[in-house]
Amino acid sequence: MDHQVTVISLYSPSSSPLEITPYAKVFRVDTKTLDKIPIVRNTAFNFSLVSFVKLLRLFKSEKFDLIHGNKLEPLFSFALAKYLKSIPCVLTMHTPYIIHGPMDTPSKGLRKIFDKYVTFPSYHLAELSCAKMASRVITVSQSLADTLASWGVNRNKIKVIHNGIDTKKFAPVINSERVKQKLGLKRHVVLFVGRLEKRKGPDLLVRAIPEIKKVVKDVSFLFVGDDNTPCSIKNVLREIVAKLGCEEDVLFYGKASESELLSFYSCCDVFVVPSRYESFGLIVGEAMSMAKPVVAAKVGGIPEIIADGEDGLLFEPNNPQSLASKTIAVLQDAELAHRLSLNARRKIEENFNVQTMAKKTIALYSEVCNA
Known about the structure:
Layout: E1 6-10, E2 18-20, E3 25-29, H1 32-35, H2 43-58, E4 67-70, H3 75-84, E5 89-93, H4 97-104, H5 109-133, E6 136-139, H6 142-150, E7 158-160, H7 176-183, E8 188-193, H8 202-215, E9 219-224, H9 234-244, E10 250-254, H10 258-267, E11 270-273, H11 282-289, E12 294-297, H12 302-305, E13 313-315, H13 320-332, H14 334-351, H15 354-369
Parallel strand pairs: 1-3, 4-5, 5-6, 6-7, 8-9, 8-11, 9-10, 11-12, 12-13
Antiparallel strand pairs: 2-3
């Protein structure tokens, strides 16, 4: 099918306000003026406002058959499309704000009270309003679909479409020794990828290090991800590492480029996902696609990707001891690690590839437009 796609996204200094590609026309809008107002200092909400203004202008020259948005960002655009233009809307929900907000927002004092009783409930209401205005709601896991249904979203209009992985980009590569030598890593490498925030659980992995080191001596722990977010617990992590006496075993690399990230995936012996919540867990799929044994928390949508003991190992949430036990099992058993790796790659190729995600999404578009 021939689809003409227009994208409204957030502006960044490294990007052009307008970009024409072979696949889409991309408009980038800036929220910096609204971001200066303390009471509405939320990029998602502010983007919802400025993207609405942009869409209003685009309606003068463009004709759209369908509007697709994510989370609360399309709130005002959905209202415009549905009630004034009678254009069907599709919403994709990832991690709801009411779940990740309390974990990720480091507010204190009066701001903490304001967030608890005003910010989080208002964003939750905005997301539910988007879901109820939408013709169909895509969730990235069955777990999230069940959560939305429990909040009153009509289950009949919810469609589960798991995130897809680019299996060509995230393909098995063998160059681990070069990367290990460059970073000064030891024989075995345990890798964490994600923002250094509470919801991602890096503190749980740090607290598991002493237990792992009791059994596996020659091991390094590599933490890769943005450590400069407002919710960063980087300093807390460094304090824990120092208190445990594990400084020589831990490397906080910071934010990595795409090529660096691929090299880090390739060099690890175990990929650990200690998150306190994940609606899907894209990094789980990426690591599995690169044929890496994954040890992940049994939370959210992760058990929909990993069959425990077959293509990865699951551990009990918020439990460093359980995390350590499963990680040790992989590091000590080469046969287990190899079997998990092969099965993981096969599962992503067969069930969680980007082509399958695209086909399911296009089919949903056709269903909505022809309704």
